[in-house]
Structures are given as structure tokens and as C-alpha cells.
Specification:
This protein is α/β, with parallel strands linked by helices. It has 22 helices and 16 strands. The strands form three sheets. A seven-stranded mixed sheet has the order 4-3-2-5-6-1-7, sandwiched between helices. It has a seven-stranded mixed sheet with strand order 8-10-11-12-9-13-16, with helices on both faces.
Length: 535
């Protein structure tokens, strides 16, 4: 167990905290921690399965209810003449289904007050639960003990233990194998790492870098089950994104620093914090986040779902955010993608105290973080976001992603058409074929105001029409694509007012342009506005 965790636990006991809350499901590991800190002092346990239980040998002592168990520990009489008893501990496991009962909440509050004001009452309550659930009535008596995910030294120790237990020839497990497995094992609990190593060794009787893919598949499921993060596949390459050259070059520069991070830190280079991407939907923000993970030497891409973090009970939402950031830091180097961040933090500053506390914690983490977690936050609307989030020091840079210009639309058409061409069957009579004389300039010129998603939709529909046509050649031509584009309602038509508003926001905030395109509106619309302003 990490020495920092042991030290924090001991400090909570020393400063007379009434209730210590440990949110963890690995009870065996938590029991070891408690014994390591408490030593030979008296420990009583209650859990829903065995009732009153001997903490050390796990034998059931009595089948009393939680209410009866707590009442007897609260009402114990201590004669004034008797010497003050040594500190003792009450471990309550998995009581989340009981903690909302009025009598239970009241007993926990009364026991906490007695510990604070009666020096002769030395009972510390330790709640161990796989779910974080603290009613508001007792929240002020509770301190949370965070059990950090294993660092590299602890993971190395777990690997060595498994090799020894399974009597595997350690010489066959090289340092190269260890280095390749390490990123896959980071970001998991000791319990999960144990299971991964067991599965790896049981599958082929050995442990090597070849087990990395199997571990990643299992890790993806575990991260998804956490409910706060998702491990995303990253098949995209940064070169498969059309346009936004300034942003792509910027990300390549940051990726070069990450590739030589230890050397860069020694040279005085600060660890890159992240980038904030603002722009209209369908212009490549999410695609950039996915492609950046592959660019950064194929590091894990963790997507944070802010909506899933909002919970009912006091402290639960904040704990979910802390949990997500702990997982990201343990999985470093990695990319943390926060999609549509405006939906989470746009209400900060109002009556939502929970969101304000979460926002404050997130800002502090962004400001102080030293770990190799590169944050990519995306937003469709930055107007309502607090200014604290947009200032330098949180993110390294803020980019606006405009609608693609003529050259960028040509690139996007080439990307999507070439992608379709690679997937088309080569056998005669099956599917459709691509005309080798596609006029990309004409396609780009006829799709002013289209974003990347609009263009992809046009290509998909053109392939469908080509497939359903009666023509024997089934050739995907420029004319077929142009006909589809002519009938497509682009984002510049469906979201005209939103585009105009975004242009104003970008001008006011002086965000860095992700491409060489200075215009959000179509040229003729831009001129009309300038003429109106002039007269």
C-alpha cells in the first residue's frame, strides 16, 4: 500500500475525525490497510451478510441489526473513575442501503458528536463501501480517504508477485515486455491488475508483451463500468483530417514533446496541459481528439462523460470527478477528452452549488497538474462558459474551428472519397466503382458553407444512389455527387444565426484560428454585413 495513503489515514485518526469514509470495493486490500494502521487495537465490524463480525478472522459474532449494533456502541457507559479507554474502531461495510434510515443517520451523528465532545468516548467509525453515499445530515462529520490507483512501482511489485506465485521463469519476462505492458495496466485498481495478470498467465502459461491486446480489451470494459470514463478506440490518423492545418501542426508539435517528455522536462520544458477546441458541430473537433491519441504515440484516449457524474447524494458528484481524474492520472501518459464541456460548466455561478464545487476542483487540477495527461476539451458554444476556464494557464491554447474554406473542402472530399474507394469491392458487378476523373475543385466550389459532416453525408448518399442505379457501370461520378450536394441543406443554412453568433464570440475572445480561413460566413454574406454596417 502506498505510504501516502497510510500517512493520510493515520492523520485522520490523530486529528479525531469521527467518521472516515473509504470508497473501495476491494475489501481485502482495505482490511490490510486498516490492520497496518490500527495494529492490535480493538476493531469491531458490521456488514449486512454476517452482522456483527470478528474483523480479524471474519467469524460472525451475532445477527444483530445495524441499528441495534450502533445503539449499543453509542450508549455504552464509562464510569468517571475508570481510566480513559484506548481508541477503538467500528468498521461498517456496505451500509449504503441502510444509511438513509432516520435512526441510522441519527445514531451516526450522535456517535460523532460524542466522540468530538466526550474525551472518554474513543470510537472511530470507518465506513467501507463500493458506493459513495453520504446523507447531508452526517456529511460534516465525514472525511474521505482516497485510495489512489497503483503507481508504476506498485504495478511492478504486483507483476513480480504473480511471476513468483506462478513459478514462472522470470528471465523470460524481459524489461521490454514490462515496458510494453505497463501502459495497459495503468489506471486500474490492484484488484483489477491481479485479475488481468491471472487471465494473461492462464491463457498461455506465460506473461509477455503479447498479452497487451487482451489486457486492453478487458481494460476497456472495466473503464466503461466505472461510469465516469470510456476508453475510446483511435483508428483515425491526423493526416486523414482535411483542413485545419494550424491545429494539426500544433498537435504534432505537442506530440513531439510527449515523445521526449523526460528529456524535455530536464531541459525546462513544462508538461503540456491541453487544448480547447471551440466551433460549430461537424467541423472536426471530436475527430481531432481521436486522431491526437494516435499521434501521441498511440496513448490511451479516455472520454469523460460529465452528465454521468451528476448524482443525488452530497459529495457523490465531486467524488466521481475526482475518481475520473485519478484514473486519467494513473493511466498517464494519456489523452483526456471532455466532449461538449459547455453542457457541464455553463451553469457555474448560479444556484448550483455542486456544479460550482466541481468546476473549482477541475480548475485547480488543470492549473496544478504535473502528470502527462493531455486534456482536449471540445465545445460547440463557448459563450456561456466562465472566463476562468478560457484564460491561459488552464489550457495551453484555445482554437476556433471554422467552416472549411475552398481548399479545405477539396481535402475533405479527397479524404472521404479515398476512404470509400478503399472499401469498395474490386469484383465486377458488385457494388459501384469510383470514377478516376473526379473534379475536386468543382465539388469544393459547389459546397460553400458545408462542414466536414455535411460532405461525408453527401458522399455516403452518393454511394447509395450509385448502388441503387440501373446503370450497368455503377460509376460514382462528379455529377452524381453534385446532384446530391445540390439537394443537401448544409449547416450554414440550418444554423445561420448560430454561425453569426459564433463569429462574434470568436472575434471578441481573439481565439486562435485552427485553419487559414478567416471567415465564418460565406463571402457574399460577409460583404452584405459589411455594407449594412457601412451605411
Amino acid at each position: 500500500m502506498n505510504n501516502n495513503i497510510i500517512s493520510s489515514f493515520q492523520k485522520m485518526i490523530d486529528v479525531n475525525i469521527p467518521i472516515i469514509y473509504i470508497n473501495d470495493y476491494d475489501f481485502a486490500r482495505v482490511d490490510q490497510l486498516i490492520l497496518q494502521v490500527v495494529g492490535s487495537k480493538k476493531i469491531e465490524e458490521w456488514n449486512p451478510a454476517t452482522g456483527c463480525t470478528d474483523f480479524r478472522n471474519k467469524a460472525s459474532i451475532g445477527d444483530s441489526s445495524l441499528e441495534t449494533f450502533l445503539r449499543s456502541r453509542y450508549t455504552v457507559e464509562l464510569p468517571q473513575s475508570a481510566p480513559a479507554p484506548n481508541n477503538s474502531f467500528i468498521v461498517l461495510k456496505e451500509i449504503q442501503d441502510y444509511i438513509d434510515e432516520p435512526k441510522i443517520k441519527t445514531l451516526l451523528a450522535l456517535m460523532s458528536q460524542r466522540k468530538l465532545y466526550d474525551r472518554r468516548y474513543e470510537k472511530t467509525i470507518i465506513i467501507v463501501s463500493s458506493m459513495l453515499k453520504v446523507p447531508q445530515e452526517i456529511e460534516k462529520y465525514v472525511s474521505y480517504l482516497e485510495i489512489n490507483l497503483p503507481d508504476q512501482a506498485e504495478i511492478d511489485e504486483l507483476i513480480d508477485q504473480h511471476i513468483e506465485i506462478n513459478k514462472y521463469d522470470k528471465s523470460k519476462f524481459t524489461e521490454e515486455d514490462r515496458d510494453k505492458l505497463m501502459p495497459s495496466l495503468k489506471g486500474m485498481t490492484a484488484f483489477e491488475i491481479d485479475r488481468m495478470l491471472d487471465m494473461a498467465m492462464s491463457s498461455n502459461g506465460s506473461l509477455s508483451a503479447d498479452d497487451r491486446e487482451m489486457i486492453l480489451v478487458q481494460k476497456k470494459q472495466m473503464v466503461r463500468k466505472s461510469g465516469v470514463l470510456e476508453l475510446i478506440d483511435t483508428p483515425e490518423s491526423i493526416d486523414s483530417i482535411g483542413g485545419i492545418e494550424i491545429l494539426k501542426n500544433y498537435l504534432k508539435k505537442k506530440a513531439s514533446i510527449y515523445a521526449r517528455l523526460p528529456e524535455a522536462i530536464k531541459a525546462g520544458v513544462s508538461v503540456p496541459k491541453g487544448v480547447f477546441l471551440v466551433g460549430m458541430p461537424g467541423c472536426g473537433k471530436s475527430l481531432c481528439a481521436k486522431a491526437a491519441a494516435a499521434l501521441f504515440n498511440k496513448v490511451p484516449l479516455l472520454k469523460m462523460d460529465m452528465g454521468s457524474m451528476m448524482k443525488k447524494y452530497v459529495g457523490e458528484s465531486e467524488e466521481n470527478l475526482r475518481k475520473a481524474l485519478r484514473i486519467a492520472e494513473a493511466a498517464a501518459p494519456c489523452i483526456l477528452w471532455i466532449d461538449e464541456i459547455e453542457k457541464a460548466f455553463s451553469g457555474v455561478g448560479g444556484n448550483n452549488d455542486i456544479m460550482t464545487r466541481m468546476f473549482g476542483y477541475f480548475l485547480s487540477w488543470m492549473q496544478e497538474k504535473k502528470s502527462a495527461v493531455y486534456v482536449i476539451a471540445t465545445a460547440n458554444n463557448a459563450d456561456k462558459l466562465p472566463p476562468e476556464l478560457k484564460r491561459k494557464g488552464r489550457f495551453d491554447e484555445i482554437f476556433c474551428i471554422n467552416l472549411p474554406n475552398q481548399e479545405e473542402r477539396e481535402e475533405i472530399f479527397k479524404v472521404h472519397i479515398n476512404k470509400k474507394d478503399r472499401s469498395l469491392p474490386r469484383n465486377e458487378g458488385i457494388g459501384c466503382k469510383l470514377d478516376k476523373n473526379i473534379d475536386y475543385k468543382e465539388l469544393a466550389n459547389s459546397t460553400k458553407g458545408f462542414n466536414g459532416a455535411d460532405i461525408e453525408s453527401v458522399i455516403n448518399e452518393a454511394v447509395e444512389d450509385c448502388f441503387l442505379s440501373d446503370s450497368n457501370s455503377k460509376l460514382l461520378t462528379t455529377d452524381i455527387i453534385l446532384n446530391i450536394a445540390k439537394d443537401t441543406k448544409s449547416i450554414s443554412k440550418s444554423c445561420r444565426s448560430q454561425i453569426e453568433k459564433m463569429e462574434t464570440i470568436f472575434e471578441e475572445n481573439d481565439f486562435t484560428n485552427a485553419s487559414n480561413n478567416p471567415y465564418w460566413l460565406l463571402p457574399e454574406e460577409k460583404r452584405k454585413r459589411e455594407d449594412q454596417d457601412r451605411y
